[in-house]
Amino acid sequence: MDTRHLIDPELLPLLELMPTAQFNAETLPLIRQMSEARFDFLGDPELKPVIKVIDGPGGPLDICWYDPAPGSTGRGALLHIHGGGMVIGSARSMQHGPAAMAKALGIPIASVDYRLAPEHPFPAPQEDCLAALCWLAAESGALGVDPARIAVIGESAGGGLAAAVALMARDTGGPPLAAQLLIYPMLDHRTGGPDCPYANAATGEFVWTRASNGFGWGALQGNYAINDHRKGWFSPSRADDLAGLPPTWIGTGSMDLFLDEDFDYARRLVSAGVPVELHSYAGAPHAFQLVAAAQATQAFYRDLFGAISRMLG
Hints:
Elements: H1 14-17, H2 28-37, E1 50-56, E2 59-66, E3 75-81, H3 96-105, E4 109-112, H4 124-138, H5 140-143, E5 145-155, H6 157-172, E6 179-183, H7 210-221, H8 231-234, E7 248-253, H9 259-271, E8 276-281, H10 295-311
Parallel strand pairs: 3-4, 3-5, 5-6, 6-7, 7-8
Antiparallel strand pairs: 1-2, 2-4
Helix pairs in contact: 4-6
């Protein structure tokens, strides 16, 4: 189905900024190279991070720490997890988003440079992100953070990892979360594949496609069989029980490949007694908020920042 005519006209420049790529083992090195350089033209971020190196499960783990008011105490904070389909991207190359968010909200943000698949399949990325959450909670006093007001936030693959971290923290007695903020999260490994439970012909044509999704999930899976107690940590949509998770905000575009899985996750959270705020932005494909001037983007940030302010007090 040709869905270009359904895109919000203000968002069409996104298709030039983020052209649809064919992900496979042969193209991945070049796509990674292009991804790392995509935002160089923006120059330095509004708030330059301090790089903190912590002990991660696979060795030293970098955290980009954005603090708009060093020396302040008792603040809420966000653990940010970048997107990239589980296979591309880095906290170092994707600094502008968390930097601008920290400055706008006036709270510190820790962005974790987790390991990527396929070199580091499940559970390596998830364990890195959980380690970052544990570090943020353990060092909250030194960082001027209230440990009761920490939330996890991520976009795309980062949103899926954020959902996984919330499940892992609940299941392992890890640090409690005040909220999870999931931006068009990548939650269900079945989407776009032969076992896909969703059949929406209006989603997934641009930026992040069904083929790309299959490659990303396959790279993350490695040799994991998806049939043990960790299946929800791998693919949050497959978690048997969503009770006890923190209040949740989910935002997605109406043309995003993840629309249906995100709606389904929101429905299941509500059924499990979890407070949920859900937004869908009309005519918006994956990564639409990169078009800063669009009305949909302005609505998105108004909704997201309002939720963060309420959830973190």
